Amino acid sequence: MKSLAANNLTLAYGDDVIIDALNIEVPKGKVTAFIGSNGCGKSTLLRSLARLLNPKSGHVVLNGSNIAKLKTKEVAREMSILPQSSATPEGLTVSQLVRLGRYPYQGFMKKWSKDDDLAVEEALSSTNMMDLKDRPVDSLSGGQRQRAWIAMTLAQDTETILLDEPTTYLDLTHQIEILDLLFELNEESNRTIVMVLHDLNLACRYADHIVAIKDKQIWSQGKPEEIITCDLVHSVFKMNCDVTLDPLFGTPMCIPHGKGRCLIKEEIQKSIKVLQ
Question: Where is the ABC transporter domain (predicted)?
């Protein structure tokens, strides 16, 4: 099983330090979710783990080696990433996009093979994109485009998959479909999945390990049932909430405080009027 870690990692854009001297070891064969407020550095950390952003100091370790010293195709055969936003060349079909996921396995001595065809077909099928494979990507809805990019990532067939907000632009049905797919990949083939997620309740439901980021560091990490508390949510998100159990899965479920139509409150007021 492949390993992924960061040692004393500092990340910055110019003089603006986003992550400061952070250490992390991604649990092998598990689903990990990065959570935190907007701008806390979740996506920046994910990009650095994938070697898309060079660190100011420190380094990322993949399978015991400094990732900066590995060849691009060597990294791409071990780890794939779906960035938060991706630009598609005009006119490129879904099938053509997904085929790009096989580039780490191509070379002067190795041409397109039946294994490549099979990997593309499986990726299209698992993301329910087979019927759309001949459509131009730029003609699809936002949710369909997202599934096409996820299919390309799956076609890369790596043991470690990094995804930056994979449910972006998806309606509720397709959010669950994609997260179920990633969960099954982990369960059936023991793949290491690392995701940035904004929905705290879905993170608790699907992740084995949660990493909460605040103040350029890891604020807390561990199993959802061990670390997701009202205090953590208030500290990381500046939000008051109640934390209860998901009635279907038994995982932590955050109920945020705030204004809104409160049926319980209305029933209490009705009861008071009756008593008066």
Answer: 4-240
User: For residue 95, is it within any domain?
Assistant: yes
Cα–Cα distance, 139 to 7 (Å, whole number): 42
Find all residues with CB under 8 Å of 264, minimum gap 6, and list them.
none
Q: Rounded to an integer, what distance in angstroms lies between the CA atom of residue 248 and that of residue 260?
A: 24
CA distances from 237 to 77, 84, 118, 232 (A): 36, 21, 43, 8
In a domain, 21, yes or no: no
Burial of 86 (0-12, 13-18, 19+ CB in 10 A): middle
pTM check: above 0.85: yes
Q: Give the pLDDT band of residue 265 (cuts 50, 70, 90).
A: low
Q: Which residues, at least 6 apart from 243, have a Cβ–Cβ distance to it below 8 Å? A: 228, 229, 230, 233, 252, 253, 254, 255
Cα–Cα distance, 273 to 206 (Å, whole number) = 44
Give me the domain span that covers residue 120: 84-158
Dihedrals φ, ψ of 2, to 5°? -75, 155
Rounded to 5°, angle at Cα 134 from 131 and 137? 100
Q: What local confidence, expressed as pLDDT, does residue 58 receive?
A: 95
Total number of domains in the chain: 1
| pLDDT for residue 276 | 56
Say if 172 falls within a structural domain: no
User: Which residue do the tokens 């405080």 mark?
Assistant: 257
